[in-house]
Fold each of these.
Amino acid sequence: MPELPEVRAHAERLDRDLAGTTLVRFRPLSFTALKTADPAPDAAIDHPLAYVGQRGKHLLLDFGVATFVIHLMQGGRLRPDPKPAAKPRGGVARWELADGRNLLLTEAGTERKAGVWVVAGDPEVAPPLDRIGPDADTVTAEALHRLLRDKPSRLHGFLRDQRVIAGLGRRLANEVCHRARLSPFAPTGRASAADAERLVEAIAACVGEGMSFERGRDDMSSSRQRPGAVHHRKGEECPDCGDVVRTIEYKTYEVAYCAACQTGGKVLADNTTSKFLK
């Protein structure tokens, strides 16, 4: 799933290329595309695109009178559509612009969870953005320490909880835990102020690294192309200590870590459906 660096860099590309262009038509291409009824998407027609922004894992197309809030979910992409087909493969929605260009939201796979919300006024106070926490790279160590104590859970799950802090997914949760030298299963209720400082520094470093990588591209990368020390590195050497990278594998995702760097050499195990590399 695209995370904060990928979505923010893509927003920058779209803003650079399309800001100021007038919307002439919005077309939902699937039954599940549009998540709101009021205002209607037509409210933005004949208005120029003020800017393309990012909030958490969402893209924002702001036309002044209304904002399209787009969640790409796992396999969604928002790209130029130079040769619009009536029924594009995986098509979710299309924005047609006055200069003849188009933007097409597509989603790979069969889940069909990518969607579009149309919001009048401040998008931060309406669904879906009203349900998410601050962007992860804006949270201070003091604020994060309070959240860690107030939201008891395992650290990896805490970092991925968009209601607490927004923008981090499975890959960045793996990388942040490794960079901070903390176990992904560490209980957040026991986190110290020093742990919060390390996490804030790790978030800034991992997001910054991801942003640098994405800004050097013409389009959004795939998960396996993105930089990292442990994510998708099972069985490889940890670049920091040379120990092997291990994983705890669940049905739909994996938690990657280095035992030497993060758990004092202890190999983590799960009692349900996990498998791990010894």
Amino acid sequence: MSIALSLAGKVALITGGSRGIGAATVRLFHQAGARVVFSYQSAADRAAALVAECGGPEHTCAVQQDLATPEDGRALIQAAVDAFGTLDCLIVNHGVWPAHDQPIATMLDTQWRSTLSINLDSVFGLVQAGVVAMLANDRQVKGHIVLIASTAAQRGEAFHADYAASKGALLSLTKSLSSELAAQGIYANCVAPGWVATEMSAAALSDPVASKKATSLIPLGRVGSVEEIAGPVLFLCTPLAGFISGEIFNVNGGAVLVG
């Protein structure tokens, strides 16, 4: 007997969808039968190629959208609803991780403000407008929200306090949203990846010393793949996860337990 992780008839919005974890999630949601809207900032060629790969504009829509303010987030939700008429799944995947080590004693206000604006302020606008759109759905399960955080949200990250603080806020936001919205038919969960092989982490993972340090804290002995993050995100939006809400879903090879 086969088990299908189907999202047929659903509409999903995935932020930061042109590359890395976002692109893998776009592909997987398309394969599961959803119509997908995804945002990108500047990679127009990649976005167009991904739309073509995932069935063309009848099935997948790319929206160029900066995400640094609540207004940006609200605008993207409206674009998704305009594209396919509704919203069932909101996957908040975009974010910035300044790759250079920055001691808190010398971190500039501009770095702190930029990281928090992208990683948190825009999320408020996305979630706020996304909830309004989902509540308009005429069914018992009105929607799913999955926020992408990080292991840094749970154990901190030296020299990256801005990033850790912004992602830590998503953990509390997840729990708050679940407490508020579960009774209204909206599920809210969080996926917290550890080290994953993406363009954002490539500089650190290509350095032998940094890479050895990172993998030494992962019991599985390796970094994750983007598909290994996208899979749990999809699962949390299916009926098989129908009794899961407010959960922090660690996908990090066991790293949080030892770091």
